[in-house]
Amino acid sequence: MAVKRDYYEVLGCSRQASPDELKKAFRKIAMESHPDRNPDDPVAAARFKEASEAYAVLSDTGRRRSYDMFGHAAVDTGGGPAVDFSDMPFADIFDTFFGGGVGSRSRRQRSDRGDDLRYDMTITFEEAFTGVEKEIDVPRLATCERCSGNGAEPGTGTETCPGCGGSGQIRRAQQSIFGSIVTQITCPTCGGAGRLLKSPCTLCRGQGRTTITRRLAVRIPAGVDTGSQIRLSGEGEAGIRGGPPGDLYVVLRVKPHPHLARRDQNVIYELRVNIVQAALGDRIEIPTLDGPVEIAIPAGTQHGQSFRLAGKGMPDVRGGRRGDQYVLVQLVVPKDLTVEQKAMLRKVGGLTGKPEKVSKGFFEKLRDAISLDG
Known about the structure:
Blueprint: H1 7-11, H2 19-33, H3 42-58, H4 61-70, H5 90-98, H6 101-111, E1 117-123, H7 125-130, E2 132-143, E3 158-160, E4 169-176, E5 179-186, E6 195-197, E7 209-220, E8 229-232, E9 248-254, E10 260-263, E11 266-274, H8 275-280, E12 282-286, E13 293-297, E14 306-309, E15 325-332, H9 339-348, H10 360-373
Helix pairs in contact: 2-3, 9-10
């Protein structure tokens, strides 16, 4: 049977150590050795358990006195700590050291806030470019107009909850290795309200909120894209027991354009040209966000070549500065040529059986062949 170490030695304290010194010593060991911080470390777990047992005894005035007089024999029958601290989360341990009252109150206050809502909206590519204002109908929980949100039938009022005395919380004391720990829980009788309804409101049945549909105007700025969100503060569901309302988030989806594609603030248009247009050049009308414009395709344009139209893209949603439009040339090679067309291409030449860099002379031959054919 293993011999237990002296509890004061375990904590690294003298026998004259004050309660605060004992707590400080245990806190240091707990920070270093708690299982949450040392997963799969049996040595750290054993050290933490040993320190927990030592502190459980020495933090209790009566048990410490017995231990000082008779050693381990005086406390072994006591059963060790009232709480197995190794099963308690690391954060909860230090809530005990520093107190969790303020955090608990903050959590209760946040729980009274109304829920946030989401509304999915689809707009066109053009509306994303110009910006637009839309009206939407949003069903939500709103403060009951009959009882003004207190849940009581008008003229009846409320009475103090006998379970919590009006505080909405119940205090419970529990023995732990730190001694007596007092915790607060929400009163199960009143649900934390601190009061009971004498007669529930006939409209909301005591809930203080009713479901209504409200029409809202949403201004969508120019430059938004799929996934953009617009927050309407205070337009979510009403809070509980007078708590603040939540927010409404409008999540956007932009329909694809039939001809234009978007990359951030830039717009891309794929221009399909035939071999003659690419070889001899042409002037072609293309679509842009500002309407159709005519661009010049120079002679000798290659497949995959691009042209930039500065300032013809989407506006930035914050600054308004517009991106560019890129015209990407896609060369369309005909599959079904007539006999005459094939003959004309053979006049140009180029069937050498090996790769060849297309030179300016090729386009001159093609131009001459077309002229002769005409």
